[in-house]
Amino acid sequence: MNTINLTEVALRQRALFFDVRREEIDMNSESTAAVMAFIARLKENGYCVSEELLHALNNVSPVRLAEITKVINKVLRVGLNWAPLVKGWNVPRGERLSDHIITLIVNLLGKDSDIKGTTLPCGHLIPEGTFPIERYNGCPFCGTPFKTADFVYRGQGSKLKELRLFTKSDMEHLFETLLSSPVPLDATQQDSLSMLLAEFPLPETPSVTMKETVMLVVKRLVELGRDYEAGKLLKTPTDILRYQWYEKTGYIQLIEPKTLIAHASRLYTHIWGPLDKSADAAKAMKEKLMLKYDRRTCRRVARWLNALPMTPEAASETMNPKRGMWVRMIRALRLGEFSRKEGFGNLSRLLDVFYNRAYSTWQGHVDKAKSENDSSTTLSLLKERPGLFARCLFASMLRFGSDHVLAAFNEVTDKLPARLLLSLGNAADTYFDPSATRIARPITGVAKTIDSNPLLTLYNKEILKEMAAAVNDLYRDSMARRFAAHPTETKTIYIDPLLHNIPVGVGDRTTTIQDTSCALMGTRFPVEGDAVRLFMQWGKGLHAQHLDMDLSCRISFADGRIEECAYYNLTCTGAKHSGDIISIPEMVGTAEYIELSIPELESAKAKYAVFTCNAYSTGSLSPNLMVGWMDSQNEMKLSNETGVAYDPSCVQHIVRISESNLSKGLVFGVLDVAKREIIWLEMPFTSQTLRGADSRSIEALLRKVTEKLSIGELLEIKAKSQGLTIVENADDADETYTYAWALNPAEVAALLNS
Asked: Minimal CA–CA distance to 749: which of 524, 516, 504?
């Protein structure tokens, strides 16, 4: 059993993993010297332990404690370089635009000029009277660091995060919960499931309902040579195509090749105009997507398709939306050749029907009925497929009338998963508001704004509000019926007040990895002190090279003003930047910071501060980049010698860019100054700089997550439907729902599916 992997998974649940039985733990044991030393190390990193975990630690060897400490240090990146470009960057250094211009001219003239100055290791001559080079850890002109720091601050955090005990049974329960999740897994959950698949066998009768989860499981089974078992999880041709594409590209979504090629080209388009690298990137992506398979893979896919329990006509209909991809895949996998072999009769009939188009599509019948304005036929067809009915519910209400459509939809509501109903309720207010900005996140991850439905102009505001209210009542009533259908013997329930700050995570699939928590997008983090310190670290494990990532902040004021704190404007009202680094040192990475002063922002009547990180270098955000923010009631130190300002005990939230990242920029948080709260968002965009982050899209996403049903509200619906009394003390409750419970979104999904 790989205890390192299991420790990393447990940390995401705010826990530590030990293979012990709870009933065997001596709750009267005394802590050893090794355990007390371990607790002290945890406190330095901002953690404390529950009473149960403390007593469990007393039976753990010092070697295992040292291993856990090493894992925590790895997750928090405390062994990397956290030195920024400037020493003591909280004190203004008087850097001016003229310093850059003069230095540029002097370096263009060459070293033969008689101008006095200092030549730095990068080769640039810094003239006297320009940059105060004694304040820098590197070159102030080109942003290349020369010095690194091998320490971070520790133990300044004012609020410790409690770690609980995670046993083998807890880990197995988490594994089964992730497998059976009724909602798509985000990047953190996918990464955890991949690690757990290496440690635990599949249940005898696995309940894997989400297609994306199926892909992860199938890939692991194929790696283990268990092709037959993998085939049992593949129910449709789309499942098989999705797996082949996932294995080829690493993307679970079926992204068309032309979309990936165009996206790669855009990533390598510089802010000043196209570069040759844009065409090279498109060419490289095209070559990467070339389909080449060995005989073993071809035979495996042929067997899977031949064993499908669908008629050729039904299978061909599911293949139709991705017909172009299927034609390429059939040729590359030599399926025509296998269809002529003995024992592949089902595959032969499938290919005949598919190529001869001897099938009709349900969507074609729906489109025809809509074009003829035949509401009766349209709604009759939609009731055959409730999931697709839900996806076009709003447009159908505008086209055929809300009462008529909702009456038909009510007939199939109970056949739908709760996540779809919640998505409808969350989206209704925005959809039926003609003035609201709607956003969508395509499969490339970049948020797009959507124009309102033109049919909205046919209705007045009052009727549109009634439509939105009807949808909200629909899904709340449905959730109440679902909870009421599962009576419980318990009488009381405790709902942690913090759960009212966490929206139900339906429809917002995050692509970043959270190594120290599993917070849902839209979670609100209260600011404890008077300062918020943003940080970004990138370049771990890479050789020294030009790799320019930027940390930025946009501040919006009540009078409509906008100020930006970024590489081109290092200080603004309430914000200071640590300096722009465009090259990374050898293997240990580098860091940038921005410090926000809450009192200064309040006095200037600032409303919001938006946090972003960007890849200024051509290409996407570095896959080893991590970004987040720190906060503490205690003063957070900043080194005058090196500029290091990182303390893991002060970290409030931290995310890591995953390998499948496709974005150039990422909005990762919004500070609501008046409420002193930070809302965690994840909105990718395609620009090299902060200015490319569309304000309308950010506001729309912020509105979307703040208007969502919270976990606390969902639990209140459960309590009312099941006749439970809400109590204020967890110890007095039969059912307890805490913040720690909500850290596992799969548990919330299980509640939706109860």
From this structure: 504
Q: Taking all residues of the chain, what is their mean pLDDT, rounded to a whole number?
A: 87
Q: Predicted confidence band at 400 (pLDDT cuts at 50, 70, 90)?
A: very high
Give pLDDT tens digits for 700-741.
777 767 767 788 888 998 899 999 999 999 889 999 998 777
Alpha carbons 576 and 578: distance in angstroms, whole number: 7
Helical residues (DSSP H) of 86-203, grouped into ranges:
97-109, 168-179, 187-197
pLDDT digits (tens, 9 = 90+) for 121-149: 998 999 999 999 999 999 999 999 999 99
Structure tokens at 342: 């003995």
Residue labelled with tokens 């509000």: 465
Instruction: Note whether 272 and 369 are same-domain residues.
Output: no
| Residue 255 near residue 444 (C-beta atoms within 8 A) | yes
Q: What is the pLDDT of residue 694?
A: 67
Q: How much is the pTM? A: 0.76
* Angstrom distance (rounded) from CA 446 to CA 346: 40
Q: Give residue 478's pLDDT.
A: 82
User: Are 289 and 427 found together in one domain?
Assistant: no
DSSP 452: P
pLDDT higher than threshold 50 for residue 274: no
The alpha carbon of 475 is separated from its chain's Cα centroid by a whole number of angstroms, namely 26
Element at 394 (helix H, strand E): helix 393-400
How many domains is the chain partitioned into structurally?
Answer: 6
Q: What is the DSSP string of 595-643?
A: EEEHHHHHHTTEEEEEEEEEE-SSSS--TT-EEEEEE-SSPPP--TTT-
**Residue 114 sits in which domain range?**
97-130
In a domain, 478, yes or no: yes
| DSSP 8-state class, residue 726 | E
Which residue's entry shows tokens 């330095």?
44
Q: Report the C-alpha gap between 664 and 285 in whole angstroms.
A: 17
Could you give the CA distance from residue 583 to residue 544 in angstroms, rounded to a whole number?
Answer: 7
Torsion of CA 14, 18, 22, 27, to 10 degrees: -80
The mean pLDDT value for 366-393 works out to 91
Q: 160 CB contacts (<8 Å, ≥6 apart)?
A: 43, 46, 47, 48, 649
Q: Rounded to 5 degrees, what angle do the CA atoms 513, 516, 517 make? A: 80
Q: Is residue 92 part of a domain?
A: no
- pLDDT recorded at residue 185: 82
**Hey, what are 149's tokens?**
């720091």
